[in-house]
Amino acid sequence: QVQLVESGGGLVQPGGSLKLACVASGGAFENYTMGWYRQFPEKERALVALISASGYPYYTDAVKLRFTISRDNDKTTIYLQMDSVNPGDTAIYYCAGTPRISYQPNDYWGRGTHVTVSP
After folding, report:
1. C-alpha to C-alpha distance for 104 and 118, rounded to whole angstroms
2. Are 75 and 62 in contact (CB under 8 A)?
3. β-pair partners for 5
4. Which tens digits make up the pLDDT trace of 36-88?
């Protein structure tokens, strides 16, 4: 059973930075496509960024040039470096993964971590 556990959420000021982490266990992490999603109130979860098993990143337009996704296979962990955040980035952020090659790596989910961007 694959388990994903996020950490690093919290309160950050506009223009600031925050780094999220997601530790995976129970699967062949090195073969997984991993991603970060976020969910706004009363909205569905939407992909923010993903990283392939080979380390190739993909970003949605909303976060391109501001967020950076990375992975450390030795630590079975992915990260989301969030820079130049704004109040529109306030959401619950979820880690997700899949053994498939997919632009929606949503077979497995973490429980989420809250990010609030506010003065």
Report:
1. 29
2. no
3. 23
4. 999 999 999 999 999 999 999 999 999 999 999 999 999 999 999 999 999 99
Task: Please report, as a single letter, which amino acid is at residue 83.
Answer: D
Give the closest residue to 37 by CA, choosing from 118, 102, 28.
Answer: 102
Q: Is there a contact between 52 and 36 (Cβ–Cβ < 8 Å)?
A: no
Amino acid occupying residue 78:
I
Write down the pLDDT at residue 47.
97
Q: And the tokens for 117?
A: 């961007």
Q: Rounded to 5 degrees, what are φ and ψ at 92?
A: -95, 130
Per-residue buried b or exposed e for 91-116, using 16+ beta carbons within 10 Å of the residue's own CB: bbbbbbbbbeeeeebbebbbebbebe
Greatest C-alpha distance within the chain: 41
Find how far residue 98's CA is from the centre of its chain. 13
